[in-house]
Amino acid sequence: MTNRAKNYRVGIDIGGTFTDFALLKGDEVILHKNLSTPEDRSLGVMEGLGKLAEKEGLDLGAFLSRCDAIVHGTTVADNTLIEMNGALTGLITTEGFRDEIEYRRGYKEDIWDVRLAPPKQITPRRRRLTVPERILHDGTVHHALDEDALREACRKLRLQNVEAVAISFLFSFVNPEHERRAKEIVTQEIQNAYISASHEVLPRAPEYDRTSTTVVNAYVGPRVTGYLEKLVQRLAEGGYTKQLMVMQASGGVMTKEYIDGAPIRVLASGPAGGVIGSAHTGSAKGCPDLLCVDMGGTSYDMSLVVGGQAPAEAGWNMHHRYLIGVPMVKVETLGAGGGSVCHVNAGALEVGPKSAGSEPGPICYGRGGTEPTVTDALVMLGILSTDEGFAGGSFTLTRKGVDEAFQSIADDMGHGSAEQAAFDCWRVVNANMSQGVRRTTAGKGIDPKDLVMLAYGGNGPAFAAIQAEDLGITRVLVPKASPTFSALGTLVANPTIDEERSYIASAKALDLERIRQLWTDLSNRARKFFTDAHFAAGDIRVNYQLNMRYPGQNFSLSLDYQTDVPLGDLSFIGDDFGEHAIALFNARHMAEYNHIREHEVPEITGVRLAALVVTPSPGAAGGFTPSGKAPVAAKQRRANLGQGFAPVPVYLGKDLEPGMEVPSPAIIEETFTTIVVYPGWKAQVDDAGDYQLVKT
After folding, report:
1. Measured distance CA(436)–CA(573) in Å, rounded
2. Contact assessment for residue 454 and residue 275, using Cβ atoms and an 8 Å cutoff
3. How far apart are CA 250 and CA 439, in angstroms?
4. Above 90 in pLDDT, residue 605?
5. Residue 390, φ and ψ in degrees, nearest 5
6. Which run of H or of E encompasses 271?
7. Could you tell me which residue ranges the Hydantoinase/oxoprolinase N-terminal domain spans (predicted)?
8. Measured distance CA(301)–CA(245) in Å, rounded
9. pLDDT average, residue stretch 39-68
C-alpha cells in the first residue's frame, strides 16, 4: 500500500462549467469531471476528490493522506476580470502620473472600430491619488516621500471603502525605498486592505506595464488568495498534509506561499496547463509544431507550440484588456464553448459569447436552462446521446425543451425547422472558431496547414476534424485524456519560478558585477521558495536569460544566455559576456524578424531567471501500429455530420484497442467526451491508446 500511495498525484482544473480531475497512479491516469460550484469553487474540488477516493476504494481522508501532490489550475482571477467583480481598488502613484493607467500607451485593440469603448477602469480617477516623491533612473532620491500627503491619500481612499491598494512609484524597481515605506503607512492607515506594491509584483520597466500589472494584481489578489486559503483549509481538514501546488500563467507550478506574493501569476493558469500538456504529448508523438485548441463548456482557447516548446512571454500580454507583465503562455480565447448561447440578433444568427455556464447550464442538462446552446445543438444533431449518462454518468441529457428552443430560433430567422436551426448554429460556432484560429496564426506569420492540431476539452473532439478540414490541416491528435487535458497538463508542468529584474545598458558597456548581483538575488529568492517547498537545492535547474533590443525599439526579445545549469552557478559571466550576448541576440532577431542591424549595438533591458525542478509526469509516447483487428460498432444513431441526417455507427471507447482504425462517418463515445469522425476522415487508436484523426 505504501508504494502505491507514493504514486498518487492529482491535477485539477476549474472551468466555467466543469471541474476536471486527472489522477496519476504510477503510469495509469484516472479521469473525473463534475459540475463547478460557482458559489464556492472549493466545494466542487472537494466533491471531485471524494469521487476519486471512491474509485480507489478509499475514504477521502485516507486518499488525501496518500497523495504526494495536488496541483491546481484555477480560473478565479480570469473570472474576476471577466465579471469585473474584484476588490474595490485604489492606486497611489507619483505626483504627475495619475492618469498613466488610462493613457495605455495610446493602445487600442482595434484601431478601426470607432465604437470600441475603453476598458472599464479598475481604478477610476477618484480612486487614483498621487503623492510628491521622486526617485531617479539611477536610484538616487531626488524628492523625499511626502508622508503627510500619503496619509491624506489613505484617508481619502479609506472614505471610499477601498479593499485593495496598488502602489506604483517611478523607478521603484531600481530603488524600492519609497514603496516600502508607503506600504508600511498604507498598512497602518487602511486596516485589512490588500496591498500590491509594484517592486514586489513586477520590478521592471516600463512604467505603464508595471502599473497596470500592479493594479490588476490588487484587484484580483483578495479573490485569489481568499479562494486558495479556503481550499488549503478544506484539504487540510480532509487529511492532505502536503503543500498545494498552483498552476501559473508561465506554464510552471509553485506553492500557494509563492503565489500569495503575486496572485496575478495564476491568471490564465488553466489554459496554460493544457498548452504545457500539448507540448509534452506532441513531442512524444513526433509532432513538435502544434495548433492547440481547447473547447470546454464556456470558452474556446487557441495556442501554438513550435519546436516542442510553449515559451512564456513576459512582454505585451494584453489580457481582458489590461496589460499583464508577468510571464504568460500565449493563449487566445473566444466565447465559444458548449454552453455558448445561440440567439438571433437583428435577423442574424449568433453564437456566444454569453454562456449558460453550469448553473443553470444548457437546456439538455435538465437543470432549468431555457436558452439554446451549442451542447443543445449537438443533441439535436444526434452527435450527443440522450440515452446514457453524460460527463461520466453524473447526469443524463434530455431533449425536453430543446426542440422548442431551436424552433423558436428558426421562427425568428423566418425559415427552416428546429433541426435546420441547430445545424446552422453548429456551422456558425465552427466558423467562429476557425476564423479565430486564422487570426491567431496569421498574426504570427504561420500557415495552419503546416501544423498538427491537438484537440482537447470536453467539446474539442466533437469539432476537431471539421475545423481542421476548414484550415487545411490533415492530422489531428486527440488524447484519450482530452476532456480533462488541462488538469493532466498541471501534472506535466514542473515547479517553476520565472522572474526578471530591469537593467538597461549597452551590450558593450556592461557592469558585470551588477548583472551578477541581480542574478544572485533572483537565485537566492528562488532557492528560498524551493527549499520551503522541500525541494533539494541540487535538483534545481536554471535558465539564465537576457532581455535585449536595438536602441529605439519599443519591445525586447528574451533569449537564453545559459541553460540547464545548477542554481547559483554564474561562472559563465566573463570578459566575453557582452560579445556573446550580441551574437545570441542577432541570431534571435534574424530568426524572429528576418533581419539584423549590422552596425548597431543592441542593449540589455533586463535579466531573467527561470528555475525549475523536474518532477514525474505521465507518459505520452505512441505511434500507430495497425493491428488488423476491425472495430465493432455498439449501435447506430441518426445524426447529421455535415451532410444531412443519416444512420451513423457509434463506437464505444472502451471497446477500441491500440492498432484499430475507425472509418468515417462515425461517432466515438468516450466517458467524458465524444469524438466525431467526419466524412473524409478516419480515426486511428495509437500505441498509447490515444486517437489520431487522419484526412483520407
Report:
1. 44
2. no
3. 23
4. yes
5. -110, 150
6. helix 269-284
7. 9-189
8. 23
9. 92
Tens digit of each residue's pLDDT (9 = 90 or more) over 133-160: 999 999 999 999 999 999 999 999 999 9
Nearest to 200 by CA among 170, 167, 224: 167
For residues 18-37, one letter each, b for 16 or more C-beta atoms within 10 angstroms of the residue's C-beta and e for the rest, the string is bbbbbbbeeeebebbbbbbb
591: closest CA among 562, 563, 557?
Answer: 557
Return d(Cα 201, Cα 501) in angstroms, integer.
11
Burial class (CB in 10 A: 0-12, 13-18, 19+), 680: middle
Q: Taking residues 190-195, report their average pLDDT.
A: 96
pLDDT for 358? 66
- pLDDT of res. 631: 95
- Mean pLDDT, the chain, rounded, equals 91
Instruction: Find where cell 503562455 sits.
Output: 329
**How far is 173 from 195, CA to CA, in rounded Å?**
17
CA distances from 338 to 461, 643, 691 (A): 12, 21, 21
Cα 181 from Cα 149, distance rounded (Å): 13
Buried b (16+ CB within 10 A) or exposed e, 45-62: bbebbbebbeebebebee
Determine the pLDDT at residue 391: 54
Q: What is the pLDDT of residue 1?
A: 35
**What DSSP line would sit under 480-528, residue for residue?**
TTGGGHHHHHHHHSPBEEEEEEEEEEETTS--HHHHHHHHHHHHHHHHH
Residue 618 has pLDDT above 90, yes or no: no
Higher confidence at residue 280 or residue 4?
280
Q: In what order do the strands lie in the sheet with 603-613?
A: 496-506, 603-613, 540-549, 557-566
Taking each helix axis from N to C end, the angle separating 269-284 and 485-492, rounded to the nearest 10 degrees, works out to 80
